[in-house]
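// run 5 | inverse folding | seed 20
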C-alpha cells in the first residue's frame, strides 16, 4: 500500500459487516482520491488491487477486528463501522467515525447512540423487540457516499 506522506490519515473499514455496495464506494474513493485505506476483518475478503488499498486479516474471535481497529486507528483517521461500541472507543481516541448509514458519530452523539443500542439489545433479549435495524436502502447508500466525500474533501481538498 502506498504510504505517501502527503496523507496524514488512513481510512479504516470494519469490513466484517460492511455491505458490498459500500465497500465498492470506499474502494473507488480510495483509488480516485489516493487515500490510504485498510479493510479489517476476521475472514478473508477480496479487495481491489491498488497501492492505496490493503486488507488486514485478524484472528477469529468476538472483538478481534474491533480491537485491531481501536489499537491502530489514530486521531485524524476515519473509521467506517456499524458497531456503536467500537465507534465509541474510536471517537474517544479522536478518530472520525462514519456509520455505514452515513451518519457522523461524534463526541456529541455517541453516548446517546450507545445508550439506544444497549436499550434495543435489552429489549430484544427480553423478547419485546424481535427485529434488528432496518435494511439499507438507496438513501442510506447515498448518505454514506456523501459523508465519505465530505471527509475526503475536508482532508484532501477538491481534486
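// decoded
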Amino acid at each position: 500500500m502506498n504510504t505517501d506522506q502527503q496523507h496524514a490519515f488512513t481510512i479504516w473499514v470494519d469490513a466484517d459487516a460492511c455491505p458490498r455496495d459500500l465497500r465498492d464506494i470506499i474502494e473507488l474513493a480510495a483509488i480516485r482520491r489516493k487515500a490510504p485505506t485498510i479493510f479489517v476483518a476476521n475472514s478473508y475478503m477480496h479487495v481491489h488491487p491498488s497501492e492505496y488499498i490493503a486488507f488486514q486479516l485478524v484472528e477469529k474471535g468476538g472483538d478481534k477486528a474491533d480491537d485491531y481497529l481501536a489499537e491502530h486507528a489514530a486521531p485524524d483517521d476515519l473509521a467506517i463501522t456499524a458497531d456503536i461500541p467500537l465507534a465509541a472507543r474510536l471517537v474517544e481516541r479522536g478518530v472520525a467515525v462514519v456509520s455505514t448509514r452515513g451518519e457522523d458519530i461524534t463526541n456529541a452523539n455517541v453516548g446517546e447512540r450507545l445508550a439506544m443500542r444497549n436499550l434495543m439489545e435489552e429489549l430484544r433479549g427480553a423478547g419485546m423487540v424481535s427485529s434488528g435495524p432496518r435494511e439499507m436502502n438507496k438513501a442510506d447508500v447515498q448518505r454514506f457516499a456523501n459523508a465519505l466525500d465530505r471527509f475526503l474533501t475536508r482532508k484532501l481538498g477538491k481534486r
